[in-house]
Amino acid sequence: MARLNDDAQWIVLMGFIVSFSLFFLAILINQSTVVGQTTAEAVSEFPKNDIRGVREVIIASESITDTTEKERVQREIKILSLSRQNAAVDFSAKSSTTHTYIDIHYNNGVAAYNETYTTS
Amino acid sequence: MVNENGQLYTIEGVAAGLILLLTAYFVVNSTSIYTPGDTHISDMQLEVIGADALTMMDTAPNATGKSPLTQIIESGNADGFTSMFLSTANATTGERQDTIQFQANLTYVRSDDSINSTLFARSARPFTGTEHAVHVSRWVILEKNLPGTTGDRHAALVEVLLWRD
Asked: Are residues B153 and B49 in contact, defined by beta-carbon separation less than 8 angstroms?
C-alpha cells in the first residue's frame, strides 16, 4: 500500500469540469446584468434635448430685430448653458444678401455638436 | 468486489468542486448588489415624457403667436402651468391618469451675470429630495423685465424636476 493510489481519477476530473463550467456561467450572468445598464446610461447621458433646445433658442434669438436686445439675449444663452447645462456654447451669425448663416458650437465634455444653420 | 482504493481522491474532488461552486455563488451574489439597469430605462422614459410635455406646451398655435408656455411664464400663471403640465404628462390611454409629480423652476441671468433660479410652480406633493427625480429643461425667450435685470427681452430656462409618486 505504499504506492500512489491512482483510482477514481475520473471523479476528480468531473469535479473540475463541473466547477469550471459553473464558473464560466457565473461570468456570463455577471456580464448580462451590466449590458442593459450601460446602454441605458449611454442613452440618458447623451444630451439630445439640450442640443435641440439650445439650437432652437439660438435660431429664435437671431430673429430679434433690436440689436441691443439680441446681444443681451445671446449673452444670456451662453451664460445659462454654461451654468445650468454644463455646456460650452458659442455661436455667431454671418449675413449674405439673401441668407443668414449661424455657426453653432456645443460641447459638454461628453458630446460635441457643430452646425452651420442657414435661414431660408 | 467493490474497489475501495482512491477514496481520498474522491473526497478531494468533491471538496474542490464545492469550493469552486462557492466562489461562483459569491461572484453572482456580489453583482446583484449593482444597480439594476431597469431603473435607468424608466428614467429615460420619464425624461422623454417630460421633454415632450414641455415641447407641446411651447408650441405656438400659429407662426406669429406666442406659445402657451411663454404666455404662462410671462404672466406668472403658476396654476395654469401646473394644470397644463400635469394633464399633458399624466395623460394615458383610457381613463386612468398617470401619477407624475413635478417641480418647475424659472432660471435666468441677472444684469450682474449671477444666476437666479426661483420656484415657479409645483404639483400637490412637494419635492422633498428623496424622490428619484429626472431633470428636463426648455428654453424660452421672454418679452418681460425680470427681477434684477435690465431690458424687456430675456432668455430663460424652464427647469422641471419630475418623478412618479
From this structure: no
Q: Which three cell numbers stand for residue B127?
A: 419635492
Please check whether residues A17 and A68 belong to one and the same domain: no
Q: Is residue A2 part of a domain?
A: no
Q: What is the mean pLDDT of each run of 10 residues along chain B (165 residues)?
A: 77 93 85 59 88 94 91 94 94 88 95 93 90 92 91 93 91
Q: Chain A partners of B137 at a C-beta cutoff of 8 Å?
A: 49-50, 53, 84-85
Task: Establish whether this prediction's ipTM goes over 0.85.
Answer: no
Domain of residue A23 covers 10-45
Helix (H, G, I), strand (E, B) or coil at B105: strand
* Residue at A95: amino acid letter: S
Residues making up chain B, counted from first to last: 165
Would you state the torsion angle of the CA atoms of residues B124, B129, B133, B136, taken in this order, to the nearest 10 degrees? 80
Integer Cα distance of B47 and A44 in angstroms: 8
Q: Is A4 on the interface with B (CB under 8 A)?
A: no
Between chains, do B27 and A30 touch, taking CB under 8 Å as contact?
A: yes
Q: How long, in residues, is chain A?
A: 120
Domain boundaries, chain B: 38-164
Q: Judge if A14 and A71 occupy the same domain.
A: no
DSSP label of B110: -
Taking CA–CA distances from B152, the nearest residue in chain A reads A69
- Tell me the C-alpha distance between B58 and B54, whole Å: 6
Cβ neighbours, 10 Å, residue B39: 12
From CA A45, how far away is CA A86, in angstroms rounded?
Answer: 12
Q: How many CB atoms lie within 10 A of CB B162?
A: 24
Q: Count the alpha carbons within 13 Å of B104 in the hemisphere toward its beta carbon.
A: 31
